[in-house]
Amino acid sequence: MITRNEERAVGKVIGDIRRAAPEAAIVIVDSSSDSTPTIAESMGARVIRQVPARGYGPAMDRALHAADREVIVTLDCDDTYPVEFIEPMARMILEDGYDLVDGSRLAGKPEAMPWINYLANWGFALLASLVFFHRLRDLHSGMRAYRKSLLDNLTYTVNGAALPVELLLRPIRRGYKVKVITIPYRERIGESTMRPLQGAWWTLRRICISRFA
Questions:
Q1: How many CB atoms lie within 10 A of CB 192?
Q2: Cα–Cα nearest to 206, from 145, 176, 163
Q3: Alpha helices in the chain (DSSP H)
Q4: 126-156 in b/e burial notation, b at 16+ Cβ within 10 A?
């Protein structure tokens, strides 16, 4: 996970992970000015501080490469994603031979997602599906399972918003075995820091980069 001022949610999320996946090693890259890292460390998470904050992309890149297990599961630390899916998604990598399992929130419109976000996500997923000749539903999911060897061999643009787009599309283009499953999506704890216009621009840019660069 990556965190920035998630003190209201981090304790609950880590506690839920401990109960759902007790063997998991929890790695957090944190750029908070509140008590988030203190809470996380007190609950046994490995916390890597990145201060001053460098943005989502560099933080996620550091988190992905700091983990050393064969399967790496990403999860937003705002209580929106179902931790009970961690182990089933990991088994799809270990037992079923997938290289990436994507947790799609968008079988329909989640109640917790504003209409403008849903329509934007749906539109970008449709565009990517046409460009990549691969049915996609959710380019921005914060919950995925990756085989570590995939990440070790994957190149992507670290800086800039919407990194999950590239982390999904580049493996598809390179022929990795990708599985999409449907997951529920809940109301977040805390305030969103998303910048819609910046995110939209970077989503389009990453779709083009992943397909043509």
A1: 11
A2: 163
A3: 10-20, 36-42, 56-66, 86-94, 115-132, 148-152, 163-173, 196-212
A4: eebeebbeeebbbbbbbbbbbbbebbeebeb
pTM strictly above 0.90: yes
Beta partners for residue 27, in sequence order: 46
Domain 2-212: CATH class, spelled out: alpha beta
Pairing mode, strands 27-30 and 2-3: parallel
Q: Give pLDDT tens digits along the chain (213 positions).
A: 999 999 999 999 999 999 999 999 999 999 999 999 999 999 999 999 999 988 899 999 999 999 999 999 999 999 999 999 999 999 999 999 999 999 999 989 999 899 999 999 999 999 999 999 999 999 999 999 999 999 999 999 999 889 999 999 999 999 999 999 999 999 988 776 667 778 899 999 999 999 998
Domain boundaries, the chain: 2-212
Q: Are 73 and 147 in contact (CB under 8 A)?
A: no
